[in-house]
């Protein structure tokens, strides 16, 4: 990242010098009752110049595990840097968070609305302001997500391939897994990449739930990143990872061959072999007893925790080809 760090940065129309602690209200819109909806943006700048790192969560309103991680960064004062700047936005989609919904009130997915438009939909306008009034000042983004619906993700970092800087940062973060995934058109990650802003996307857990272990892995990863950039304040300790990170080049979904009542028999992070039993599908009448087996060797990185599944539903996400 650049060493030409600014003494004054401009965030959402506010000029913020070094040595400043500031909370800015990102004005999103008003409810039908004329009540303002504002997203707090918490900014901590050391007196000593350094990188600017942005931590975001709640891009999808029902993915609250990420919100818990950014909350911990603030409450435990991890966001007070020894040098440089740390910006925290715990909830980007406050509408969805309030309603337990993935999307914005206009039905749009904020993470498919970037880089946005000044005169577009509500989601598009929020995306536009974020990309034009905040992201230009940022050197690195770490964005926290969870698995969708009932699918529980193992703690993982997602990056694009052939980006040595991202490989290095992913190793520093040291989540159990790193998945190479292509950018999705109109996603936040893609929009940042187009501006030359590196993004680590953290996935873990499932929507509408907070898992303590997923939060812990996320917080510990952040501390290692901050330590890497010499930004971690002296009151906080970065712990070395317990396990070596597995880089996943390819993976495969194992899907339900029958509809019925589903029970998983293996846990996240388990290494399985071909023909290992992963779960069982039964019917309410005691006639169907279908065993779900692994068709490949690898690690379980996602488990569907739904009790009822239909034929074709994704049940397990298993790594396929690994590299050290």
From TrEMBL:
Superkingdom classification of source: Bacteria
Gene Ontology molecular function terms on file: hydrolase activity, acting on carbon-nitrogen (but not peptide) bonds, in linear amides; hydrolase activity, acting on ester bonds; metal ion binding
Succinylglutamate desuccinylase/Aspartoacylase catalytic domain: residues covered: 49-228
Entry-linked Gene3D superfamilies: Zn peptidases (3.40.630.10)
Cofactor (UniProt): Zn(2+)
Keyword vocabulary terms for this entry: Hydrolase, Metal-binding, Zinc
InterPro entries linked: AstE_AspA_cat, N-alpha-Ac-DABA-like, N-alpha-Ac-DABA_deacetylase
PANTHER family per the UniProt record, alphabetical: BLL3975 PROTEIN (PTHR37326), SUCCINYLGLUTAMATE DESUCCINYLASE_ASPARTOACYLASE FAMILY PROTEIN (PTHR37326:SF2)
Full protein name: Succinylglutamate desuccinylase/Aspartoacylase catalytic domain-containing protein
